[in-house]
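Give me the 3D structure for LysR family transcriptional regulator.
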Amino acid sequence: MELRHLAGFVAVAEEQHFGRAAARLHISQSPLSQQIRLLERDLGTTLFDRSTRSVKLTAAGETLLGPAREVLAAAAVARRAARAAGRGQVGRVSLGFAGTSSAVTLPILTRAVTAELPGIEFVLQGPYYSGETVGRVADGSLDLAFATVSNTRGLRNRVIRHDRLVLAVADTHPLAAEDEVTLGELADEHFVTFPAARGSEVRELGVRSCLEAGFTPRIVQEAPDSFTLLALVGAGVGIALTVEAARSIALEHVVFVPLAEPATVLPVSLVWRATDESAALHAVLDLAEEVLPTAPA
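Predicted structure for LysR family transcriptional regulator (297 residues):
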């Protein structure tokens, strides 16, 4: 049983027509018909009911179709893996991610690496706060990271998207009905935020924005992650300044309200060590540039 015979079989089964299948495979119809006959001879059964107008799978053909697709898919993976190895694109790349800010970009990159770079073991670690991921890249604990950072401490970085600061309040809060709010309206509120000691860029930006608006936020509770933060907001413990990506966490009793000021934006970046010459890392970076283009300034 040859792979090209299986490929021909799948093409005819999907097109239900020898001429269209041959065109799809960029061969003439006669060699394709011969491949199918050889496959049927090898298996000792008829795979298609043929007529002058149509081609239909027999029961044996229906049974073969699923496994044939799986074999062809596995062969394609093996082919890509061998080619990647020939280019040095093998090895292990660890990626750190930071909470909700990675929710949009992480699945896109992970799926692309799995599909296009099968020779690379792509290890995800997190969630961390952005300051933690940057520190781990700097000390070599991570090869690559998503981070919402304005200071990458001399590391290389590429901005792939921007995340806006928004207000999260309980649905019973008076501000929940507003189309937008100013930071000055929050001066007397109680705030829930992330811990100060773990390098949360969201916390730092929120506090800095409040100070620029003329008040120091009254922080009454810290939360270790975005889910807990929003749960505390929904429970009425306090309000929170968080990123727009947190809308992906669907919790009852939490409302997001835009800020009226000129949008305060956090850059979401890919961060890596400039001195890291790993072929595997640079293969991931090249692929990331295709699937996650640089965000406009």
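The longest helix spans residues 59-86. Let me know if you want a second pass.
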